[in-house]
Amino acid sequence: MAANTDSRTAELRRLIRKAKRWDALFGVLGILSLMVGVLTLAALFTGMAIDGVPRLTGDFFTSFPSRRAANAGILSAWVGSILVMLVTAFFAVPVGIYGGIYLEEYARKNWITTVIEINISNLAGVPSIVYGLLALGLFVYTFGLGQSILSAGLTLALLILPIVIVTTREALRAIPRHVREGAYACGASQWQVVHDHLIPYGMPGILTGVIIGMARAIGETAPIITIGALTFIAFLPPVPGMGEPAAGLFDWLFSPFTVMPIQIFNWTSRPDPAFHQNAAAASFVLVFMTLGMNALAIWLRFRMRKNISW
Amino acid sequence: MTSATITLPTTPLPLKAEARGLDFYYGDFKALKRVTMPVYEHKVTALIGPSGCGKSTFLRCFNRMHDLYPGNRYDGTIQLLPDAVNVLDKSVDPIEVRMRISMVFQKPNPFPKSIFENVAYGLRVRGESSRSYLEDKVEAALKGGAIWDEVRDRLDEVATNLSGGQQQRLCIARALATDPEILLFDEPTSALDPIATGSIEELIHQLKGKVSMLIVTHNMQQAARVSDFVGYMYLGEMVEFGDTKDIFMKPKRKETEDYITGRFG
After folding, report:
1. Is the complex ipTM higher than 0.85?
2. Is A174 part of the contact surface with chain B (CB cutoff 8 Å)?
3. What is the pTM (predicted TM-score) of this model?
4. pLDDT digits over A143-161, tens only?
5. Hey, is the C-beta of A195 within 8 angstroms of any chain B C-beta?
6. Residue B10 falls within a domain, yes or no?
7. What is the extent of the structural domain holding B32?
8. Residue B65 and residue A185: Cβ atoms within 8 Å?
9. If you ran DSSP here, which 8-state letter would residue B152 be given?
10. Which residues of A touch B126 (CB under 8 A)?
């Protein structure tokens, strides 16, 4: 009897050892795959830092582009990027959030909404250059908005709209049914439920989607080149009320502009290696802008979710 | 199946609501079949029966909860007295029904807002904004929900941090804040431990005589402890309705007896 038990235990141990070999193998493969991504990114970032960080002086942020690499800066590029982002957020955030709310809460489930839903998912996968072409025809020529900050902001707003809509819907869907029912059972109308409950409880997720969309938009180059952003801009958009004659409140929207990725592209394409250093420095700043936005998204989500549980 | 065996009390009691010939469909599936049952004013009526018998479906007809999902259809009437309005009528706004009939759910579902705002919400959707009025009503409701002493010093704290039993009493307070004509309970203690269950049952006892209550429970001892009347449902039909003592001591129908003695279900 005892011998029998011993041999059974030995057999079990052999099986367990065999099963665990696969664990070890998979673990090693997993780490290797992960390293491909992480090390590549780290190498890129380090290379960029070594080349670029010495150029990151105060002057670099406050100078316009110049023919002499040592005098060139990113003033018009970062101002342009921020202004374009403002326009993008102004249009994409309300339209995307309300679109998401409508689709998730109000729209009847029929074939029309199904078609719309599929199309929104598809739009998220459309190459950004296509948005650029659309914007060139629509905003720049048809609406006559010109090669302006407004055109660029609208283009990027279109680009991130699907991201905002999809994350808004996901955030709303994560709110449990019994919480909604509790609100309806109090006698709330649909809009009251949306306004008093779904939007506040979904806000962490919605904001995350908005910021991730913006982080994607700030790095977009192709559609901005397509609509004709300039690569060499030695002036800032007009500040309302300043200059002679005084600039109007919205004149800056119609100003020519450049953005960070275009400035980087421009510097990289020059033969002089001193400009490549500038490009590395500007890339470093751009990566920090993106990482900063993602960090903000994580922090906001963490902070706001602390008080939201079911 | 033969029609329901309904034993009305010998001394007539004031009615608060009455379901008559109620059919209910989830799409093509007929979940309730000609259900008829009275709800007496300021009494507790329990609905019992095995899982899937339609007792929760029936309860959720009273505040038109089924309207929230597409494909549901009601036939028949639930009259709400004294004005004899049929709450299922398409011309009656479900919001109006839910303002008159409150509900407490199976899983405690406080909003992730402050304790105060949870209880005040029903009043807020009615457009109440006077702080002193809201404070009075919230205090009264929390006392009615037997939770005032536990939360009086922390009305601004998030309600979801309370324990499960406290959350459920808060949900009862939220339902009471709007002075409902009927209070619906959908298995209110099935997610709670025995001590919290005891406190909820105690609370239902206290509310008896002030509010008309309808409670779905899968716990027969609970039905026996808290209710004045019991309806036994099976496969979407009302099998037997009567005084709680009669149903548990001398049921008229064999099916009821089999269920309550544990031979079935």
Report:
1. yes
2. no
3. 0.81
4. 888 888 899 999 999 999 9
5. no
6. yes
7. 5-106+181-260
8. yes
9. T
10. 187
